[in-house]
Every structure is written in structure tokens, then in C-alpha cells.
Here is the input.
Amino acid sequence: MSEMDAQPPVSRRSLLDHVIALCGTVTGVALVGPAVAYLWPVTKAGPVKSREEVGDAAGWAPWTARKASIAGKPVLIVRTDKGFIALSAVCTHLGCLVEYDAAKKAIACPCHGAWFDLNGQVTGGPPPRPLPAYGVSEVQGKVFVSV
Ligand code: FES
Here is the structure.
């Protein structure tokens, strides 16, 4: 007599219990899985991006800036001698709108005297973080910003 023969045979009732438990588990995953996927928070980058035209590149002089609202977000776009940059126009201190200072080639926040360089890095004042940067592209002479 081998060891396999020593184990009790699986009864029909036991097998049926296992099949019912497996079906219950599969049904539960099928019902709960989509609900969890729906409620799961969107990633930081987010799947949805808004891309909008902000002007003609040809008529945009170097070292000048424009503001735009893209998907409800204020954006500051500056043309430098190397191309375009787009940064959030919302100060990371308390949320005032920043301004481009052409004479200093920097970005100022009028509320509490903060300064940012054109990479969005804080160079003075109380803001705790840099200005977030957005993607800029130039297509057929038009400037587009993605937020
Ligand atoms: S809100 Fe910009 S420095 Fe305070």
C-alpha cells in the first residue's frame, strides 16, 4: 500500500464545496474588480492632458511672455533665445499670479516678493517649491502648451 492510498478519498460533497467556493471567489472578483478600478485615484501624471495653441512663433519676440489659461490653469509662456518655456503662473507660496520681468529675465511674484528663474526654480522669497513646468511644442509655426 503506497502513501497515496493512505489519504481519504475526496468525497463528492467536498468536491462540490470546493467548486462552489471557487465560483463564489471568481464572481466576487468580477464584481469588485471593476468597482476598485473605477474608484482608484488617477495617477499624478494623469491620463488626460490638455494641449492648446498659445500663439504664432513668428510674431513672438524673444524675451517676451504671454499668459494663457489652459484647462483652467494659468500658464506663463516665455520665449527665450533658445525657445519657449511654459510654467505654471500660480505662485507656490500662497497662489498669487506671477509676472515675467523682461528686464531681469526672471519671474516675480508681486504678493510677497518672490523670484523664480526661467526654469521655475525659486531664487528668492518664501515659496517652498519651484513653479511646475509644462510641455511646449512648436508645430507649423504655432506654439502649443500641454498641461
Ligand atoms: S504668493 Fe507668491 S510670494 Fe507669496
Q: What stands out?
A: The mean pLDDT is 88. Residues 53 and 144 are 4 Å apart (CA to CA).
